[in-house]
Amino acid sequence: MVSIPTQTGLGGQAIARIVGFTCMFGFLADMIALTFPLGAGAAWRASLLQQMGDRSIVLLIGLALLIYGFWENSGLRKPFSYAALAVGVAFLLSSILVIRDGLVLQSQAIDRIGQEATELQTQVEQGRNNPEITANATPEDFAQALQAIDTQAATLKQNAKTNLTKASIASTSNLVVMGIGLLGLGRVGIGGAGGSAMGDSKSRKQRRVNA
């Protein structure tokens, strides 16, 4: 037995389509704006993927509403469902890039801090050979300066590593969760009204048996 959509249901689906398209276009507009100016480095890519992950909930809601809005029309519902599957896979693959870029950025930050510390230590060592400086400083002063540089460099390296690790974990988890959600949404959309009808038929049969 085929159910006939009610006027309320059709109105709800129309609203879902409007909101769904709005979310989709809003997400695409944001991503286009964030993409420019184009870059190719790990920092640019990591920032872009982080922004994409932060806004991915809008994409998920938009696709969900569009799939619901075209639920009775498999010709329009399935393309959005396949799009959800494709984007879900892309999000999961992007999480791998986030991890790799996070490690690259950590290495770059640590190397940069190490180079700056080395330059400062070189300046201190040069000061030991400067009579004007040694006249007002003791060997202990130079040793303390070198120790302070080492301590500060170690602290900066640890802070950089911690902050970049936190950002990488947050971005990766966001992309993974949204990717899994989009994959699930796509599978449900591809199953479509047929799966729901079978489920309703089984429920009716079960009720008849119980009665």
Radius of gyration: 29 Å
Judging from the principal axes of the Cα atoms, what is the shape? rod-shaped
How far apart are the first and last residues' alpha carbons, in Å? 20 Å
Total strands: the figure is 0
Question: How many discrete structural domains?
Answer: 1
State the helicity in percent bands: over 70%
Number of helices: 5
Enumerate the spans where pLDDT stays under 50 for 5 or more consecutive residues: 196-205
The run of helices and strands is HHHHH
Give the strand content. Answer: under 5%
Instruction: Report on the biggest sheet.
Output: none
Give the overall average pLDDT: 85
Query: What class do helices, strands and sheet pairing give?
Result: mainly alpha
Offer a quick outline of the entry.
By secondary structure, the chain is mostly helical.
Description:
The protein is mostly helical and 211 residues long. It contains five helices and no strands. Helix 1 packs antiparallel against helix 2, helix 2 (42-69) runs antiparallel to helix 3 and helix 3 (74-128) packs antiparallel against helix 5.
Fill in the keyword field for this structure.
single chain, 211 residues, mainly alpha, rod-shaped
SSE layout:
Blueprint: H1 7-35, H2 42-69, H3 74-128, H4 131-134, H5 139-210
Helix pairs in contact: 1-2, 2-3, 2-5, 3-5
